[in-house]
């Protein structure tokens, strides 16, 4: 009965120690040294163990450093002792592999025999219990219970108690690491806050300086704008014209080479008797009539260059796949045939050709021919478009200003400008052209190009590049009338009387010089014509009247 009461008392004391350790302020703050002293002192006194120590591994895990060891008989704490892995390799290995080392006789236990001369004998240790401290998979250290001068067999309760204390130490170390990280984060946040405040002050100072500089710059720009004149603008346009005309000429050379190469490639691949296509055609289709039928089929498909999609493509694919399946040909070939413009309506026109035993080879040759033709066709279309663009560009920037009026094709003159803006008309601008047959007029083509450019670009801007632009030409007596209409926001009535004034603009800074309509008026005046406008929201029309013959 006395033994039972003694065990119950010890159990309560152990639980009390565990509770005190878990709630100890140092466990939360991560103060391992203070917590270790509390644990070694409490355990030593309650369990009557002469030596209790806490040992922790260094960062490289090759040394065990004594954080605290309590000697019960002397009531003293010590620390700082070091056990090195290179001196106790086997003993360190046991710590890595096992949860605890319960050496009832450490002098014969293989797990502790390496400590005999350097540690056990000098300290008179007769029984040793090492509870391994782990945090997850990481080995942290060990909690050591060591009896001196008397034999002792470690019970399961003592081993469990040692392990529980080791878990509490691991938790305290985790808290210590978290606290270090949190302190570092707080420090970084404070530094970042100070940097941000410093940066904000710097930005504010720089903003004030920049604002002042911008105000001075705006004043300077405004002054410079008022000092500009048409002569400077004309000279700039002349210089630009020389440059762009030279570039357009250089672009025309590779365009011509591409066009010639494409034509030669077309002839050498298909039209020449020695072409690979002709040779393959004769091998696959020896019969001359069938060859002729195949070439006729090619011409039909060339005229059918089209792009189909959606339901029409799906229905055509089903029809062709069914036909290919009946001929024992892979159904996936249907997509290639559809891309050539092929459909089953051609079967009756080329009946003998499609009954051939070499049908799959014939279809393959057919697809190859049309595919290459389509590629060459796209190439030639692109060359044609590029040629038109360079021609329009050369006409637009021609820098030789005519001294005397010349005959001008007004339609071609306007079309040159529209070609340069054709990319806008492909997007959100609808272009309506109503050209009557008007006679040639006398004029200065380079200046007229700038007239249409200013009017058309102003109209596009007024619509925010989204709306309807109409251009109309017609003859009225001995004059030609050109109307440029847009459905933009219109010109406010309050400023309509000023729009032809030089340097007057309603556009944001940097987007307009205020010279566009002034230049238009002067160009029309030089042609002895007139320019007027009508504007309400949703409809603005500029009307330009030009005489067919300029008076002497």
Structure description:
Helices cover 56% and strands 17% of the residues. The chain is elongated and about 135 Å long. It has 17 helices and 14 strands. The model has no long low-confidence stretch (mean pLDDT 80). It folds into three domains: 1-179, Beta-Lactamase, CATH 3.30.450.40; 272-392, no CATH class; 400-547, Heat Shock Protein 90 (2-Layer Sandwich), CATH 3.30.565.10. Helix 1 (2-23) packs parallel to helix 6 and helix 9 packs across helix 13 (359-396). The strands form three sheets. Strands 1, 2, 3, 4, 5, 6 and 7 form a seven-stranded antiparallel sheet that branches. Strands 9-11-12-14-13 form a five-stranded mixed sheet, with helices on one face. A two-stranded antiparallel sheet has the order 8-10. A hairpin with a 2-residue loop joins strand 13 and strand 14. The termini are far apart.
Q: Proportion of β residues?
A: 15-25%
**Low-pLDDT regions:** none
What is the number of independent domains?
Answer: 3
CATH class of the largest domain: Alpha Beta
CATH fold assignment of the largest domain: Beta-Lactamase
Radius of gyration: 49 Å
By helix and strand content, what is the structural category? alpha+beta
Brief descriptors of the model:
552 residues, Beta-Lactamase, Heat Shock Protein 90, 7-stranded antiparallel beta sheet, 5-stranded mixed beta sheet, elongated, kinase, HisK_dim/P_sf, phosphoprotein, ATP-binding
Brief account:
With 552 residues, the chain is of the alpha+beta class.
